[in-house]
Automatic annotation (TrEMBL):
<dbReference type="InterPro" id="IPR033910">
    <property type="entry name" value="GluRS_core"/>
</dbReference>
<feature type="binding site">
    <location>
        <position position="247"/>
    </location>
    <ligand>
        <name>ATP</name>
    </ligand>
</feature>
<dbReference type="InterPro" id="IPR000924">
    <property type="entry name" value="Glu/Gln-tRNA-synth"/>
</dbReference>
<dbReference type="InterPro" id="IPR020751">
    <property type="entry name" value="aa-tRNA-synth_I_codon-bd_sub2"/>
</dbReference>
<dbReference type="InterPro" id="IPR004527">
    <property type="entry name" value="Glu-tRNA-ligase_bac/mito"/>
</dbReference>
<dbReference type="GO" id="GO:0005524">
    <property type="term" value="F:ATP binding"/>
</dbReference>
<keyword id="KW-0963">Cytoplasm</keyword>
<comment type="subunit">
    <text>Monomer.</text>
</comment>
<dbReference type="Pfam" id="PF19269">
    <property type="entry name" value="Anticodon_2"/>
</dbReference>
<feature type="short sequence motif" description="'HIGH' region">
    <location>
        <begin position="15"/>
        <end position="25"/>
    </location>
</feature>
<dbReference type="InterPro" id="IPR014729">
    <property type="entry name" value="Rossmann-like_a/b/a_fold"/>
</dbReference>
<dbReference type="InterPro" id="IPR001412">
    <property type="entry name" value="aa-tRNA-synth_I_CS"/>
</dbReference>
<dbReference type="Pfam" id="PF00749">
    <property type="entry name" value="tRNA-synt_1c"/>
</dbReference>
<protein>
    <recommendedName>
        <fullName>Glutamate--tRNA ligase</fullName>
        <ecNumber>6.1.1.17</ecNumber>
    </recommendedName>
</protein>
<dbReference type="InterPro" id="IPR045462">
    <property type="entry name" value="aa-tRNA-synth_I_cd-bd"/>
</dbReference>
<dbReference type="InterPro" id="IPR020058">
    <property type="entry name" value="Glu/Gln-tRNA-synth_Ib_cat-dom"/>
</dbReference>
<dbReference type="GO" id="GO:0005829">
    <property type="term" value="C:cytosol"/>
</dbReference>
Length: 471
């Protein structure tokens, strides 16, 4: 085993706080979290807030909130990149001292003149070559300067990427990038490397829109003599039509999925499968995902969002969840979605109803709709279809049923023969009787089974609702 493999795994998620947590960012965070957690490693969070104009505390909070909802806990405090700026400047000066960077006094005009001359000479690209690269410090003027990396001019830089494979970049295409601006502030490219090094990051797992940056960043590692992390650049998420994901396809913010009532476990499962595979496994727990997740299972082509699959997995997670945990999540959902919260009595009834409403609900909204019978209070309002099921004949049948329910013991075994008998006495099938019962008990035509509803709400409430409906 080589030394790099023996190091404990440290991954990180490094969002720029300029908006909400995008679903692609959520997946990047999830992959980093799974990789670290599955190996007893650390998962760190760094807020890349150096762009002072665009970074806001609200955006940082929205990102943290999205991560919390997804259940992606990070180790230690989130690091602010901006707060590390003195350390970044220090490293730029260390590069100067090592001779891997230099002070450049060229002005914007000098650079424009250089480019124009290159273009006139027919160069296809004009990488700026500073005259200060090898200048004698004795000749330095007393003027503002930037610090530039002394990047290799020949040869190639190879990114050994765990997803993209061996990516080769010709050094001639990379300029001596600026690492410290004339006002002493670090550039993004320097800040990322210094922070990753200082945070002990061993694996950089991020979107493949950063693949080009990796070549430049690798040069900074080399310039400082630091260990290069394992790179894994993951393809972006596309819409169902294969085009770059945009709002036109549906929700792009993690928070939107939360308020639409998707369970976090289903979302985690779906996002894990989005661009990563473990054989034919579709439904799995986070524990299994942690055990199975590896970089080798990440595909090279962009993953397409598939809302049907998301819903399907979410339905399976709702059905498989423990009732108490589910109730807790539903209450959190109601609060996040600014919906009416449960009263103590409703919480009690929902908890009793859970066994018959959690199957085949793809979201908490669907589950709450199925649980309507347990949450409404009298008089139960009926929608048009339910109203239609309560015609005069049906109301008459309900009237003959109610007295029979007064004394029967309240179990399915005892209730079943009574309903069957009433249906037979009126020459109708059980289905014909169930429709007005559903309408009376829930105000809907699609509900859990009539028996389940009656058992959950109890004898008195059942009889009262049937009387209300019978008129
Ligand atoms: N802050 C960058 C972004 O939000 C990520 C940088 C990185 O992961 O190295 O895209």
């Amino acid at each position: 085993m080589c030394a790099a493999e023996a190091k404990p795994v440290v991954t990180r998620f490094a969002p720029s706080p300029t908006g909400y947590l995008h679903i692609g960012g959520g997946r990047t965070a999830l992959f980093n979290w799974l990789y670290a957690r599955g190996r007893g490693g650390k998962f760190l969070l760094r807020i890349e807030d150096t762009d002072r104009e665009r970074s806001t505390p609200e955006a940082t909070e929205a990102i943290l909130q999205g991560l919390r909802w997804l259940g992606l806990d990070w180790d230690g405090e989130a690091v602010s990149q901006f707060e590390q700026k003195d350390r970044h400047a220090e490293v730029a000066h260390q590069m100067l001292a090592r001779g891997t960077a230099y002070k450049c006094f060229s002005t914007q005009e000098d650079i424009a003149t250089f480019r124009a001359a290159q273009e006139a000479a027919g160069a296809s690209y004009a990488v700026f070559q500073s005259p200060w690269r090898d200048a004698d410090p004795a000749s330095y003027p007393d003027l503002p300067y930037v610090i530039r990396m002394k990047a290799p001019r020949d040869g190639e830089t190879v990114i050994d990427d765990q997803v993209q494979g061996r990516v080769v970049i010709q050094n001639a295409t990379l300029d001596d990038m600026i690492v410290l601006r004339s006002d002493g502030t670090p550039t993004y490219m320097l800040a990322v490397v210094v922070d990753d090094h200082d945070m002990g990051v061993t694996h950089v797992i991020r979107g493949d829109d950063h693949l080009n940056n990796a070549a430049r960043q690798q040069m900074v590692y080399d310039a400082m003599g630091w260990d290069i992390p394992v790179w894994a650049h993951i393809p972006l998420i596309h819409g169902p039509d294969g085009k770059k994901l945009s709002k036109r396809h549906g929700a792009t913010a993690v928070g939107d999925y939360q308020v639409q009532g998707y369970p976090a476990a289903g979302m985690r499962n779906y996002l894990t499968r989005l661009g990563w595979a473990h054989g034919n496994d579709e439904f799995f727990t986070s524990q299994q995902a942690m055990e199975w997740f590896d970089l080798g299972g990440i595909g090279r082509s962009p993953a397409r969002l598939d809302f049907k699959k998301l819903e399907n997995l979410c339905g399976q997670h709702i059905a498989a969840a423990e009732d108490a945990a589910l109730l807790h999540e539903i209450e959190a959902f109601l609060a996040a979605a600014h919906m009416e919260l449960l009263t103590d009595a409703q919480r009690d009834l929902l908890s009793r109803a859970m066994y018959c409403v959690k199957d085949r609900a793809k979201t908490f909204l669907e589950l709450i709709e199925k649980a309507r019978f347990a949450l409404v209070s009298r008089p139960v309002s009926a929608d048009a279809a339910a109203e239609a099921a309560l015609d005069t004949v049906s109301r008459g049948i309900l009237k003959t049923l109610t007295p029979r329910l007064q004394t029967v013991s309240w179990t399915k075994e005892e209730l079943e023969p009574i309903l069957t008998e009433i249906a037979a006495a009126h020459g109708i099938g059980f289905g014909k009787l169930a429709a007005p019962l559903r309408a009376a008990l829930a105000g809907r035509t699609a509900t859990p089974s009539v028996y389940d509803m009656m058992l959950v709400i109890g004898r008195d409430e059942t009889i009262s609702r049937l009387k209300d409906a019978a008129g």
